[in-house]
Design a protein that fits this description.
globular, 3 domains, 494 residues, Aspartate Aminotransferase, domain 1, Arc Repressor Mutant, subunit A
Length: 494
């Protein structure tokens, strides 16, 4: 039986002290490879701690690879290689039906409990991914989607296999136009909508439309992939810094840009909306020259936790120079790669004449299914479900951080839009060291500096905490593991 003196844990949380002691015993060889650990309840009773304390410790050990959970059997010490890397393959554990070793006090009921614990802890390799910004696929109404697809297959027959118009099926464009009017206050003709397989695809088509001589402006920090796409198209681009209100208009003027990409509702990764004053300045910049265009990326605007959702700049544009861009990839599932853009009349005419030879890259099957998913009210209900889920996730993350030792050295910047928080940490570690220390603990995370084109001390030591993929019940464990990354900095404050 694992034994440790919980009275010697000092200021460490009980689960963290237990986790460290078991980790030490594994590293020292005191717990042998393939050795089965006690069940959570058995160990909790032995140490006079709660079952949740043991559960958190086991979860961290599983996440770091020191322990593996074998569904139907229990928890086992991972096989250790000479390289110091732990083996995640199935251990050569005793068969479930085999008799316990001499001196093993665990009876059949304890073994059954251990088996249940292991099933609950699956999958085997359990890590915390704070980079991911997608929710659990369990939230997607897969049965409804499958039922719609079956119905479409039976209703449309050969029509499903006909050539799709270059700008997408009329059914889906009409459904999108209705949604934009009802939920974003935008009145657009379905004929101005272009469907494509992902935002990157549509962005690439826009670059072709504008031509290589066009100068693009991209916010910094921001979505760095856009610069990569611009490079492949041979388009000149310029990174324009952001401040607390949005993109710097004074620097935008000096960039000589003719097209600017912005996300007014969500200045990713800052997680705030552009100020009203800055929006007015941006619209003034746009109207000052008829050759200028603005790409309004409304990514993640569905998930707003502020007092109000910023209306699209599209609704305030009198010059007909705004390209509206959005995607379903975040709100549905990654495999459903459907995005769309709304083009100004002049650009739509140009698109028809120059780029309509490109086939629509989304199958008619998926487009018809999504059209009914939207028109039938399923999409709205799904979004509302996601909003409630992310609100719970956000609250759990804020509560976990607020009760964590991290608060001794960090300040939270709760994002108003999107599914992430920013944590400003006072640390002696570089961003690369923070990232590596997290990786060593089985945690994947991003720093705000990862989204910067130019190094800036302003954005250093800021951790981007995406809470979308972490179950609320395990948020405390994830944040406590993050606190361990900064343990030396925290200890200096005591």
């Amino acid at each position: 039986m694992i034994t440790c003196d919980m009275a010697r844990r000092n200021n460490l949380p009980k689960y963290e002290y237990l986790y460290r002691r078991i980790r030490h015993d594994v590293r020292a060889g005191l717990l042998a490879a393939d050795e089965r650990l006690p069940s959570k309840r058995a160990l909790a009773d032995h140490l006079s701690v709660s079952v949740s304390t043991v559960e958190q410790a086991y979860n961290v050990l599983v996440g770091e690879g020191y322990v593996i959970a074998r569904p139907g059997s229990g928890f086992y010490v991972a096989r250790h290689r000479a390289t110091g890397v732990y083996d995640f393959t199935t251990p050569t554990a005793p068969a479930i039906a085999s008799a316990p070793a001499d001196g093993d006090a665990r009876d059949a009921s304890a073994l059954a409990e251990n088996q249940a614990d292991a099933r609950q802890a699956a999958p085997v390799r359990d890590t915390f991914d704070l980079k991911a910004n997608r929710s659990s696929m369990d939230l997607f109404p897969a049965e409804t989607w499958a039922r719609i697809m079956r119905r479409k297959l039976s209703e449309r027959d050969s029509a499903l296999f006909e050539t799709v118009p270059f700008n997408g099926l009329a059914e889906l464009r009409r459904a999108i136009a209705t949604q934009l009017y009802e939920f974003r206050g935008m009145f657009v003709s379905p004929d101005r909508i272009v469907i494509g397989a992902g935002t990157e695809y549509l962005y690439g088509r826009l670059l072709q439309l504008f031509g290589a001589s066009t100068i693009m402006a991209i916010g910094d920090p921001g979505y760095k992939k856009l610069a990569d796409i611009s490079n492949t198209a041979g388009v000149l681009w310029s990174h324009v810094p952001l401040d607390d209100e949005g993109i710097r208009i004074d620097l935008l003027d000096s960039s000589r840009a003719e097209v600017v990409h912005v996300s007014p509702a969500n200045l990713f990764p800052m997680g705030v909306a552009m100020s009203d004053a800055r929006c007015e300045q941006l619209l003034a910049w746009l109207s000052a020259d008829s050759r200028r265009y603005l790409i309004e990326d409304d990514y993640d605007s569905e998930f707003s936790f502020g007092t109000r959702l910023r209306p699209p700049l599209f609704t305030q544009d009198d010059s007909d120079s705004i390209i509206y861009l959005n995607t379903f990839s975040k709100t549905l599932v990654p495999s459903i790669r459907i995005s769309y853009m709304v083009l100004p009349d002049t650009l739509m005419s140009l698109y028809r004449s120059q780029l309509s030879f490109f086939s629509c890259t989304v199958s008619s099957f998926e487009q018809l299914a999504l059209a009914e998913f939207m028109s039938g009210g399923y999409f709205e209900r799904h979004i509302n479900r996601l909003k409630r889920h992310f609100r719970r996730q956000r609250s759990a993350a804020m509560e976990a951080i607020g009760s964590s030792p991290l608060m001794r050295i960090a300040q939270v910047h709760p994002a108003e839009v999107g599914t992430h928080l920013l944590l400003d940490v006072r640390t002696g570690l570089s961003d690369d060291q923070v990232r590596q220390a997290a990786q060593d603990r089985g945690m994947s995370l991003a720093m705000l500096s990862d989204y910067c084109a130019r190094p800036s001390a302003r954005y250093a030591h800021r951790v981007v905490i995406n809470y979308a993929s972490i179950d609320a019940s395990r948020m405390t464990c994830a944040i406590d593991l993050l606190a361990d990354v900064f343990r030396r900095d925290i200890d200096r404050t005591t």
